[in-house]
Amino acid sequence: MSSKWTDTDVPDQSGRVAIVTGSNTGLGFDTARVLAEHGAKVVLAVRDVEKGLAAATRIRDAASAADVSVQALDLGSLESVRAAAAELKAAYPRIDLLINNAGVMYPATRTVTEDGFETQFGTNHLGHFALTGLLLENLLPVPGSRVVTVSSIGHRIIAKIHFDDLQWEKKYNRVAAYGQSKLSNLMFTYVLQRRLAAKGENTIAVAAHPGLSDTELMRHMPGFLVPAVSLVAQSAAKGALPTLRAATDPSVTGGQYYGPDGLGEASGNPKVVGSSNQSHDVQIQERLWSVSEQLTGVTYPI
């Protein structure tokens, strides 16, 4: 295999079921498209069903044999997460891939989810934490099954877990709040992998990040940053490669983190990268897991 891994390196996915959150646009769309082109049965788990149906049509236009369906899922609503998980579990007794891709980035003002969580933490972390816990029983029996969670370079930027103010009620900083949510994604992956390995389960947990990618997530970025970021940002299709490698490369092992190989991990082809020292703090990881169980009401079957 070439050292420069591309989507042509994705192995045959025939017979595999992949659920991709936030897949009507951007990184999620390209992740879903490539998986479908390689034979996977792909479920677009999206908040806007109409946009999801349009995305499914675009994928079928690119690959006429693609098996794509749409599932309503609003990660900002635990009621929606539970309903979607129940429907997915019934429809797909076997799940090979759960790709936690959907995200919210840098909303200018503090907003909250339906359940009262700060939007970035509630959507990016808690929604995916709940969804994964509710679907895990359908992944555990499947050899080679994986949970892939998309983090960000932002997990390093003024990022920490603010246990004294997880919902940013005292003072809102959109960059720090995003950093907290993306750091949470990594900590979630590391704890989940540790628990899966301890039980000798088939399933592994892996993380990825897209570098700087030109997607709709950039719409909330401070205006003065957009031209500079646009100059160095790679396409969504290129940004999806770390996720695709984490999801499909046979050499992947649990707990790895994939990102671009270029300068500052901003762009390039996917490889194993490191995460911040803070992300590996087991005490904080376990505390975050416990708090996440309490906030979502979801406990894991491992």
Which characteristics define this entry?
Rossmann fold, 302 residues, alpha/beta, single chain, 13% strand, 8 strands
Secondary-structure-derived class: alpha/beta
Oligomer: single chain
Count of all domains: 1
Secondary structure: helix percent: 25-40%
Number of helices: 9
Q: Architecture, according to CATH?
A: 3-Layer(aba) Sandwich
Q: How many beta-strand segments?
A: 8
Tell me the strand percentage band: 5-15%
Biggest sheet character = 8 strands, mixed
Ends apart, CA distance between termini? 35 Å
Shape: globular
Would you give the CATH topology? Answer: Rossmann fold
Low-confidence stretches: none
How would you characterize this protein structure?
It is built from nine helices and eight strands. β1, α1 (26-37) and β2 (41-46) form a beta-alpha-beta unit. It has a single domain, classed as 3-Layer(aba) Sandwich (Rossmann fold), CATH 3.40.50. Helix content is 40%, strand content 13%. The mean pLDDT is 93. The protein is an alpha/beta fold and 302 residues long. α3 runs parallel beside α4 (119-139), α4 packs across α9 and α5 crosses α9 (282-296). An eight-stranded mixed sheet has the order 3-2-1-4-5-6-7-8, with helices on both faces. The chain has helices spanning 26-37, 49-62, 78-91, 119-139, 174-198, 226-232, 236-239, 241-248, 282-296; strands at residues 17-21, 41-46, 67-72, 97-100, 146-150, 204-208, 257-260, 270-272. It comes from Mycolicibacterium arenosum. Keywords: Oxidoreductase. InterPro entries: NAD(P)-bd_dom_sf, SDR_fam. It holds the Pfam family adh_short. Residues 255-278 are annotated as: Disordered.
